[in-house]
Design a protein that fits this description.
- The structure is a homodimer of 612-residue chains.
- Chain A is built from 24 helices and 5 strands.
- The first copy, chain A, has helices at 2-10, 26-33, 35-38, 41-52, 56-60, 63-87, 94-102, 104-136, 144-161, 166-169, 171-195, 213-223, 232-235, 244-272, 283-292, 296-329, 347-363, 368-397, 402-426, 428-460, 486-498, 513-524, 541-555, 582-592, and strands at 475-480, 501-508, 530-534, 560-569, 602-609.
- The first copy, chain A, has a 5-stranded parallel beta sheet, sandwiched between helices.
- In chain A, α7 (94-102) crosses α18 (368-397), α8 crosses α9 (144-161) and α16 (296-329) packs across α17.
- Chain A is elongated.
- Chains A and B meet through α20, α21, β4, α24 and β5 of A and α20, α21, β4, α24 and β5 of B.
Chain lengths: 612, 612
Amino acid sequence: MLDRLKHLITGSPLPSQQIAHEQLNKIRALAAFSPDALSSIGYANQEVYLGLVAAGSLGLVQSVPMALVITMLMTIVAISYYQTVHAYPSGGGSYAVARENLGAFPGLLSAAALLIDYLLTAAVSLTAGLAAIASAFPELWPHRVGLSLLILVAITLLNLRGLRETGTAMAIPVYLFLFAFLSMLAYGASVVLIDGPISFSATAVPAAQPLTFFLMLHTFATGCTALTGIEAISNGVPAFRPPKSKNAGQTLVVMAILMGVLFLGSIGLTQLLAVVPNPQETILSALARRLLGSGAAYLIVQASTMLILGIAANTSFAGFPRLAAILAADGYLPGQLTNLGDRLVFANGILLLAAATGALIVVFGGDTHALIPLFAVGVYIAYTLSQIGMIVHWLRNRGKGWRLKAATNGMGALATGVTLVVVGVNKFVEGAWITVFLIPILLFGFCKVHNHYQEVDKQLSLGELPGQFTEPFPTRVVVPVAGVNRGMVDAINYARAISKNVTAVYVELESGAGEDVRRDWERRWPDVPLVILPSPYRSIVAPFMEFLDKLDEQSNDGQLAAVVLPEWIPAKWWQNLLHNQTARLIRSALLYRRRDLGFQRVIIEVPYHLRR
Amino acid sequence: MLDRLKHLITGSPLPSQQIAHEQLNKIRALAAFSPDALSSIGYANQEVYLGLVAAGSLGLVQSVPMALVITMLMTIVAISYYQTVHAYPSGGGSYAVARENLGAFPGLLSAAALLIDYLLTAAVSLTAGLAAIASAFPELWPHRVGLSLLILVAITLLNLRGLRETGTAMAIPVYLFLFAFLSMLAYGASVVLIDGPISFSATAVPAAQPLTFFLMLHTFATGCTALTGIEAISNGVPAFRPPKSKNAGQTLVVMAILMGVLFLGSIGLTQLLAVVPNPQETILSALARRLLGSGAAYLIVQASTMLILGIAANTSFAGFPRLAAILAADGYLPGQLTNLGDRLVFANGILLLAAATGALIVVFGGDTHALIPLFAVGVYIAYTLSQIGMIVHWLRNRGKGWRLKAATNGMGALATGVTLVVVGVNKFVEGAWITVFLIPILLFGFCKVHNHYQEVDKQLSLGELPGQFTEPFPTRVVVPVAGVNRGMVDAINYARAISKNVTAVYVELESGAGEDVRRDWERRWPDVPLVILPSPYRSIVAPFMEFLDKLDEQSNDGQLAAVVLPEWIPAKWWQNLLHNQTARLIRSALLYRRRDLGFQRVIIEVPYHLRR
């Protein structure tokens, strides 16, 4: 029943050999790997605006200089990753690069940062996507949390089904987004050229605080989320057509240029046209509305913004479960995360990410701006570690022009490292502390899990084999009985078949009940002794376990102790709710009770099925 | 660990012989059985006010006539129950009376109504108690739901500990309440006598609708909740000192008089003083404030109102679990409800009631007025059935003056029956429909459960014993293996000890893995054949079960089929989360897979404990 429901939702199971390794051309690869990066303007512009508007008109005229600084940073990081793409044709995610070059611990640090990243990419993209659409339809504004969760559920289900079509179907909205935005920017540029720029003093936004260096740093600390997603191509080199590294590198260059054009262009126009949004509207929406009015063109821009943000959230649903599976395979996360589900996807990882994303959206009330401080820290930890790893890579491997390459990555590491400090310090109180605390907790968890797996391996390894029984050896059997009935028959028969030494035990909850049972018992099985145990505290398990211990002590004959559990099974699952689960309780007690003797007690269940 | 936490909260377990049967004198019996009845003014007055205020001042002057009608009904019902107390010295709850005299089905109907009653008594008393206290401290008003739940949790914990002191400690707040209210009413009467009554036209409450007969009926339909709890003494006759019936009867008379005085007195004063409450205040609070100001005396009245309502809620926690246990013992509810917990209370019933009450409070936003329509229907179903049962009782048993007694109960039945119809019709849309629908659902559940238990008894009964094995008989053993490790050793040894015919089975999830296992296997256990099964859909359980079926088919040798499960048990519970629960999945599949053969497969678990 449950199985059928599951198949209805996620589709019927797929056989293992259907795992295909599709190879993407550059057009489709750009669509597959760039949404996370390109969609960053969906929140980074907003952050620049929210940071600077505090200083009023005087602040807002700093938008373009700020954007230029961030674009410079973007260029440095892009060049750094261009080198990674060529150095790691098998995929150079931060985890791989940091682990190989810096060692296990920096690798794990990077992995922890990346897991948090994926999570926040999903949460931030969803909420920012909803803000884009709610800017067009303000009546949706109060329902942001619910609607974000709805989209989250849809994305989760699609991913559980297995999104085979990643490159193809997703290419359409990505290119729609590019087309819509590039056209709008071109049109905006022509407006500025013809009509001339508008100065901010005209609209006179009042300043809440002075324009200080601190305020600029503060703005930079969240505006630098414009770079998120830039590393995606370096993870995905193996998916490109050969020559893989060359194609991936070219795609990276195109993507970086597009990122720069979109970011600088939109911020530039916002400043040159002195655009100011109303309270329930994003700055991007305000720009689009200013240029295109509120008609179809505007709606296309907003819809494509929301679509690309949704696709960006979706990339987390590919990346997070894959990284979690790699970590699990290395023994740092529960092994269940490596299980391929019915549809050949890492279903447990998908569900884990969905649950965590949902929780974040609810806790932060669907507010992108509140989530951003958590986001930026994780991103820049991963970037910095990856760049430092690349420096070590060049120092170790040398090769043609290694000095220049190491210097390039060094500059990248310096830039992202400084950014990391700026973000960590400036946004600590606003939420970065959550990420800062979460990362050590994750690292502690990784270690704890790893130690456990190693310990299990050690304890399960077969050094010398303990003595082997090969001949039948005597077993002492105890059967707990609840009364004389049909459900007991098979169990008693089986017990007598495997042992000459069978004892039945009845735990008496109401005084007198035991004698009734004894009368019936002796009529049926006169040759099996029945022991009646009192239970002053009305527990069945405790007196039974005490009896077993005492019996072992008294006997001390080296016989194996087995408990035969008669279990009658109702025909329907809900009928289980109508019965005391005594056999289950006894079984758990036996299974988990550790004994110092070498051999644990054997538990033998003899089921008897009821018909309806 | 969990056990220790549990004992910390509910106290350490008590031995069974501590069940004591305390006998109460009349003073303590009144305190034990009357809170539910006396506290009814905590919501009934409010309902009369809310019903009549719709017709403005013109409506409010009908308060006293309305109260007189309800008091008449109260007198009739009290006399009826007085007869029940004498006819059923062993306790004449509605369920007992209806079952004995009218048959199983009316008995169950009455039981369903009573269960709902207990539930609603708890919910209504808690919310009304909170309204009393929030009238004094309006800043608590927005937190009504949370605070009600807090008190609910406290009452639940106290009851799980076992409230031994029912009669003694609870007597204090009950008599405090009586003292506070009777003094206030006496003082109010003197005020009216000295200053003369105030007419409502003076305050001029505007009418929202005309004063129709329909509006009066509507008001009556909820005002009649003033009678709730009046049956409590008839359930509790065995708790009285001998002569039980006489003492119980006298206590009932005193209680009924007190109910009448409190209800009529408070409504009379409200009308004579033309009291009108402000929106976030109960009418009782408004009356007290009018007479006593807002000082200490007022606070004592409000606090004692809240206390007695809390105690009334608490009576449900005695009654509901007891009735549920009786129904469970008769086979109409899950048997677990008869389990006496560690503290000699029906812990499952207490938890069930607490969960349902909490749900009601949350769903209805802690609003007493919204809950009342659900409440009244259940109460009057139980009353009516009980009275009809008494008529049949007199017809059957006759005895001195039986005609008069039957006529008295007949009048009671008529009065409560008419009230039931009035309530059902007038309040159907406002919530009575929930109770009206819930009762058949409960009845359906009772029958379903009863049928199941009867069916189980039938199927488990031992008519002829099937053939008994007495000599050891051959067993075919299959052992699922996950690899060659220490955890397997005991299991393989045990399997070989009980059978000459052991097969190990490895389910291969990744192609090639099987051959590695085979190599290790053949070095360790060359004489135990290892079968490697492919698993195209990555399931372990399905191919294994198929293999078992095929093996049985091929062998067809009458041998018993057993599966030995090697289970290694981690040292700490959380470590279970780090491992695939394959052994558990296989066990469940074996346990619940029904086979048409006579003997089910035997499941043998051989645990191996890890150390840390």
